[in-house]
Structure formats: structure tokens, C-alpha cells
Amino acid sequence: MRAVDLIVKKRDGVELTPDEIRFFVQGFTRGDIPDYQVAAWAMAVLLRGMTAGETHALTLALADSGERLDLTGVVPVAVDKHSTGGVGDKTTLVVEPIVAACGVPVGKMSGRGLGFSGGTLDKMEAIPGFRVDLTTQQFLAQLRTVGLVLSGQTAELAPADGKLYALRDVTGTVPSIPLIASSVMSKKIASGAQAIVLDVKVGVGAFMPTVPEASKLARRMVEIGRLAGRNVVALISDMNQPLGHAVGNALEVREALDTLAGGGPPDFREHCLHVAAHMLVLAGHAPGLRAARASAEEALDGGTAREKFRALVAAQGGDPAVIDDPSRLPKAPVIEMVRCGKGGYLAEADARLIGMTAVALGAGRARKGDPIDPSVGIVVHAKVGDRLRADAPLYTLHASDPEKLRAARQQVAPAFKLTSRAVQPLPLFYRTVR
Asked: Annotated catalytic, 168?
């Protein structure tokens, strides 16, 4: 077999066999197949798609490219969650501590930002000293002792996916349903997850722009999980506007800390409680969503989730003082608040444009390996449907210098649209796929 033949085959819409997919993934993992051929293959997959059989074969090949964790001797049930990426989506920082505080250990391996969406690892690294490069042994030991661990993929865990994940970010192949589904599920299978809640974003700020497309991705991932013997639930959630208010790494950490302290934006708090409740049900902690929701609220409002997050930060070398004093987080030197300028109802807060502006400020990557500025970003002060006065704050820019601030102000301005007519708020969730 030759890599170029498989690229041509997929380019022409021909179904690849499991052996061909395994050959391609193994060659990429070893370094025998170079980045430029994998990029061409990924673009062919984006344009031509993959069958359910191909996607399942790709998932297993990615999972088998390294070691698989066996958590059966560490936790009773290995439960995990994954978001397909969004703008202002810092739910892991709140959901995981809630679930762990309810007595359900959570060991999560997360990724970095893709395109205009933020990455959990980038957010956590805004906390001074926080380490995400844990070994497998450290991951398991912390899961056993702390009950909560949040790290990046180890070099041994689905290494082919780690390489492909980084390549997709800079080759325009992020939105491919088969590549998203196989990437997500290969990590979950390799990391030992037995029960998985998927948060599938939909809207202008998501890789899936419509509910039918998001549902297609959700069904594909749920089916992969079923074939692999996992219990999977997918929640289709809105990403037409940022989740919460903050977009940018340190800004989002600050908002998560506010939520763990009993505050935070109402939409973000509600989203986190809903996802956490589903995780608790899948883990067998509660018989149904109502009881699970009550447990999640108790952990959040009673402060035990906040203390679990503190234990997580301390265990991974971060400065736990940021929990009580978020001002210790990185802060941008140039900050400007922009007001509405006219009264009306907020009809649109384009999450994609806001996310792209945050990337331009330095909160994300334009190229593979670009450094992240943890201090920069945007805080959006209103939600779609809000009635605003002319002098009401609309958004605040956090920039590294005046020139970048001016460029960001010009770039993000079209994201906000006001109207004189009342506008219905956007839903948080659209449907559940089981």
C-alpha cells in the first residue's frame, strides 16, 4: 500500500477498508507518512466524507495507535464529558469539579484550541504553575487520591490523534464530521471512559452550523460508543452566542471561579448543572436527572465543587491562591469598554466573529505551535434578547497593545446587532441524542 493511493481513493469518493485506514494511521504515527500527505487526506475526508464503517475503523485505529488506559481498578465507573468546541466554553472547569465533589471521580484528557474555539488546556495554563503534561502514572495516581485530574494527552495515548488534531487546526479540516467523531471517541476509548456525555455545539460559533448537522455528528459518536461498548449521551447545545460572558483564557478561568463561588452568568451556570446531572446519571450516582440535578446544585452552592477545583489546581502544581484571589491571573495591559451607542434589543452576538477576534488578539492560534497570550480576550456584557439602553456596556476588549485593540474593535463591531423589536432569548439546549 502507498499513502498517495489512499489519498486518491478517498478523493474519488471510494470507501477505504479497515486495513487501509489502519495502514495510514500507523504510518502517520511512525512518521513514515509526512504531514503534507495527511493534510491532503484530511481535506479529501472533509470533502468526500466517510461511511459509518470507515469512521468506526478510523476511531479504533487512532485509539490503538498507543496505549489504552484501564481504569477499572481505579474508579468504579469511568465517566467523562467532551465538548465539540465553542466560544466561551469553559464548562470543564466547573462541571468536572461538581461531579467529582458528588463522589464520582473524573479523569479527563483535554485538548488545546482549534480554530476560533478555545481549548481547556490553554485556559488551565493561565493559572500560574499549572501542569498539563502528566504521565500516565501521575494521571492514575491523582485520579485515585484526589478524584479529579485534568491533563493533556500523554504521548502514549492515541498519539496519532494528537498529531492529527494539531494538523487539522491549521489546514481548514476542523469541521469534518468523521474527523471530529473519530478524534473525540478515540480519546475517550483510549482513556478508559465507560460512560460519556457529549456536548455537541450548534450555531454560527460551532463547527456544526445547524441542528440537523449537529445531530448527525451526535448520532455518529453515539453509534461509535455503542459499537465500542460505551454508554453515551449527546446534548445538542447552542453556540450562536458565546457561552457565559468571557472569551479568552484567563478571563474564562476568572468566570469559572466566579461560578464555583456561587456567582457567574446564569446561562453558564445552568449549562454546567445540566451537563453535570447527565454525567451523574450515567455514572449511576442518581436514578434520574432530577435527583442528579439536586446533587449537582448542592455541590456547587455548598462550596464542595470549589474546594475540589482547589485540590485539582494544587495537585497539578498550580497556584491555589487564584481560587480566592483571581486578580493573580494574567491581566491585559490595555482594556477598553465599548457601549451600545443606541438603545434596543440585542438580536445577535455572533459567536464566530467574537471568537475570531479573540484569536486575533492572541487568545488562540493562527498557526500550529503559535504561543497563546492568556491575558487577552473579550467580555460580552449582554445576551441575545436583552433590552439595552444607549449607554449600556456592550463588550470589553482586553488587548496586549493599543494597535491590537483598535484592530479588534473594528473586527468585532459587526458581531453585535440591535433591533427595536423584542427578541426571544436563545435556548441553551435543543435536543438529546441517546
From this structure: yes
| Domain co-membership, 210 together with 348 | no
**Among the options 56, 82, 163, 306, which is catalytic?**
82
**Strand order of the sheet with strand 344-349?**
387-388, 344-349, 416-419
pLDDT > 90? residue 109? no
Active-site annotation holder among 151, 176, 183, 186? 183
**Annotation marks residue 161 as catalytic:** yes
How many CB atoms neighbour CB 330 within 10 A? 17
Question: Looking at 108, 168, 254, 269, which residue is catalytic?
Answer: 168
Give the model's confidence band at 365: pLDDT under 50 very low, under 70 low, under 90 confident, else very high.
Answer: confident
Residues 100-118, mean pLDDT to the nearest whole number: 83
Whether residues 370 and 235 share a domain: the answer is: no
Residue 183: active-site member:
yes
Q: Are strands 416-419 and 393-399 parallel, antiparallel or unpaired?
A: unpaired
pLDDT digits (tens, 9 = 90+) for 392-416: 999 999 999 999 999 999 999 999 9
Band of pLDDT at residue 114, cut at 50, 70 and 90 = low
Is residue 73 included in any domain, yes or no? no
What pLDDT, on the 0 to 100 scale, is given for residue 217? 93
Strand 148-152, strand 195-202: pairing: unpaired
126 and 22, same structural domain? no
Q: 80, 89, 122, 161: which one is catalytic? A: 161
Percent of the chain with pLDDT strictly greater than 90: 81
Tell whether 181 is covered by a domain. yes
- The pTM for the full model equals 0.90
Q: How confident is the model at residue 162 (pLDDT cuts 50, 70, 90)?
A: confident
Per the residue annotation, which of 10, 22, 90, 187 is the catalytic one? 187
Cell reading at 402: 493599543
Distance CA 335, CA 377 (A): 10
User: 377 in helix, strand or coil?
Assistant: strand
Question: Is 202 in contact with 214 (CB distance < 8 Å)?
Answer: yes
Per-residue cell: 2 = 502507498
Annotated catalytic residue 82: yes
